[in-house]
Design brief:
Layout lengths: L1 E7 L1 H8 L1 E5 L2 E4 L3 E4 L9 E7 L2 E9 L2 E9 L2 E14 L1 E3 L5 E3 L3 E2 L1 H7 L3 H8 L4 E16 L37 E5 L2
Length: about 190
């Protein structure tokens, strides 16, 4: 199964990890939609690993059931994962600072709030490209961040194929991820 690794800036990681309420016994997070210019060519739902780019962020974690604050200074670690259960695609133009118009419908104000971005920030980022709203669910923050080298590129060969890159790939450091994705990349699932 292909998974995805997503590079996210520290301030957005903090928003993804910030609990603002609870519904049906599950936490509601400040940021529940990630805005991107592209999307993977796999069906939802799929797992997304969160790579925090360089910078500092503080977010809550639990160790043995007890709450702590993780102060990740410098970033550049995989801090957790979530399930992307839906991706909405929009071809939009800005109409006012109050509304974003899509050819099919208006993007709701609550959807915009769940991105934790202003309309001008979205417009500056997209520069007229399509918008893909990745919906975040089942967030899991690791007790201890993982290093990038613990993850592997997804194999392009079908399972069961004798691929020289796949044989004992966990022993080959050449197949592990050495650089973070610019935006996102496919990674090998567990």
């Amino acid at each position: 199964m292909k998974d995805v690794m997503l590079s996210i800036h520290p301030e957005h990681v903090e928003n993804i990890c910030t609990v603002i309420g609870e519904k049906n016994g599950k936490p509601i997070y400040k940021k529940s939609i990630e805005v991107r210019k592209s999307r993977p060519k796999i069906e939802t739902p799929f797992r997304v690993f969160i790579y925090m780019t360089a910078g500092n962020a503080s977010y809550p974690i639990k160790i043995d059931g007890y709450p702590y604050m993780c102060h990740n200074n410098g970033g550049q670690d995989v801090i957790g994962e979530f399930v992307c259960d839906r991706i909405d695609e929009y071809n939009y133009r800005l109409t006012t600072f109050e509304q974003v118009y899509d050819r099919r419908h208006y993007i709701s104000k609550s959807e915009l709030e769940n991105t934790c971005l202003s309309i001008s920030e979205i417009n500056d980022y997209l520069k007229g490209n399509k918008a893909y709203f990745w919906h975040i669910s089942d967030l899991k923050i690791y007790d201890k961040p993982k290093e990038l080298s613990e993850f592997f590129h997804a194999c392009k060969q079908p399972k069961g194929t004798d691929c020289s890159q796949c044989i004992d790939r966990r022993e080959k450091t050449c197949y592990s991820i050495k650089r973070p994705p610019q935006s996102w990349c496919y990674v090998e699932g567990e």
